[in-house]
């Protein structure tokens, strides 16, 4: 179930650049997310915004017609996509029509055309202001019969990693693999933020720290964890498990010494279920047309 007291948004990724004068409509969000550049007149980021994959500073306030807002720092390497809660518009009397054409009709019968960026619907920011003009005052109950309530905790879903984070997390691979392969790995991790530790490298269980893990039987262990979403779920549900194993935490399962450490822990601790999801591309159908030697080189890695 969703926690309606927690502010949340989620962004999607698309190869083309998101229109600068647009704002995404998020069907899951319940807060208006705004990216703000640092300046003398900028808001002071004095609140903590809990992300699905870490934390960042933010500033919270309530805007016109009771719209809950969360300001977060604009980042040089990020998409910086502003998002608006679609559910808020429905609650305040708007009608959204999906089909060959996407439209939003305000309580005053103003019709706004919704555009698409990949699978994300969006409108122009100027249109959003006109929509808010047409909404009822915040003291009036919404469609649910309830008055507006400001979320008591701010949470959003961050869906990308910065280049600096990736460089730090995968630096240990520089001596093990080619630059071309390392760049390929970095590109795949771009959209796989660390859900388990929130990007805090001081908490990572690296090969050197594995011996510090308590040696008691667990129900599950995740290898090749990527974003470590499974391990995060286990942690949230208080299921006994071992910390996730992945490139980003200092591991390289192609190295014999790392294999030995993991196998020793697997046998000595006692793991009911081992979940491993390595990159299966070298064994995929698209490799059948490759020369045998080249195919063997890929699978040997």
Give structural notes.
- By secondary structure, the chain is α/β, with parallel strands linked by helices.
- Helix content is 22%, strand content 25%.
- It contains seven helices and 15 strands.
- Strand 5 and strand 6 form a beta hairpin.
Taken as a percent bin, the fraction of beta residues is 15-25%
Taken from the alpha-carbon principal axes, the silhouette is elongated
Q: What's the number of helices?
A: 7
Q: Write the H/E string, N to C.
A: EEEEEEEHEEEEHEHHEHEHEH
Head-to-tail CA distance between termini: 42 Å
Total count of strands: 15
Please give the domain count.
Answer: 2
| Helix fraction by DSSP (H/I, runs of at least 4) | 10-25%
Which whole number gives the mean pLDDT? 83
Largest sheet: spatial strand order? 1-12-4-5-6-3
Would you tell me the structural class of the helices and strands?
alpha/beta
Describe the largest sheet.
6 strands, mixed
- Low-pLDDT segments, ≥5 res: none
- What would you report as the Rg, rounded to the nearest angstrom? 23 Å
